[in-house]
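Supplementary Methods, section 5.1.

A reviewer requested that the exact input to the structure prediction be made available. We therefore reproduce it here, unchanged from the version used in the analyses.
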Amino acid sequence: MAAGGAALVVRWWLTAVAVSTVAWGAAQENSSDLPHLKAAGSPYEIGQAIGSTFSKQLHTFIEQYDTLRRVLLPYYGSAAGRQVCDEFLATVALHYPDYLQEIHGIANGSGVPFETVWLLNIREEVELLVESNQTTTTAPAACSDLHVKTEDMVMFGHNEDNSPSIGPGAFLLTAQPTGGYPGYTAYNYPGVLSGNAFGFNAHGLAFSCNALFPVDIVVAGVPRQILGRDTMNARTIEEVVDRLTKLPSACGFSLNIGSLHTGELVNIEVTPGSRKINVLNITTQAFHFNNYVRMATPAHTDVSSVHRLARLQQLGEPNTAHGILGVLGDTGDKAYPIYRTGNAPDDGKTLASVLFDLRVGNATIWVNANPHTATPWATLPLHAN
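The structure derived from this sequence is encoded token-by-token as follows.
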């Protein structure tokens, strides 16, 4: 369907998800509501539902998002930068036209120019291209993950960290796409496709993502946000691997995936360009932050991840649900804590946390609240066909 196509047949509605009580957590702590949008239709129609529902939030975010004004728009305004952004666009139009239609839908539904929404979806690549001559990254590091697998439990927990300005525009999306795509639920950033944070799909796969900061960006590759959205359609972990290696990646990133059906739990590191990935099959405990652990990929060093790893080594890797939440909520390193507050020198903030329980089959979510001490925002059942 063209971006300006015929009359739309689409259903969308906004719900407030009730807070569930679970065994962990005390009083509610600085929790905020998270809008939950349910939408059905074509990719374009789902994008339009997102854009129209959250138009005000997206416009406010764009006005306040420093990275857009300081990095993305100036880069796009240069001749060389425009050429790079257009090359990414051509790759996506050729290989992933439905996801591009969803981005058009977000733009048209919100009234935000397509070019601006497109830049939000290639932010990682552009930031790293701008920082290509630096040894460290100035981007707020994104996310901590802890995994535990025993005879009795299969779990992984995730802190969604990024710029504090993203939080007010974030939302949960439950989508039922047409065209043979599976339904999914995902935490979404304003203007950005699902798949860059955390979520789960109707095939019983749970996902979370860790940003990585490789030095080399492959302009002929597929942007990270597109690959993240594509993995949300996979039926199995093997299919995730196939999707990640079909075409070269423009950037690098890490995926954490658990299967409700098989009990498999993996961490995948992706490197730019080569279609080479490293799959760790987790059988006991594991972790991932925002530096490469297993692949010898030239990358910018994320200082926060260095501190978070050192603190984890002091605490010890957890082997219970309570232990996972204790680490995700830890503030023992006052400069660069695992549970992040956006206070200098660390400019990243923990926007949300999730604990996936693949034995019980649920996802427990905290919003703007320490998962070790606060009552969850909601506990949702994982989809499974």
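The chain is about 30% helix and 25% strand. These observations are discussed further in the main text.
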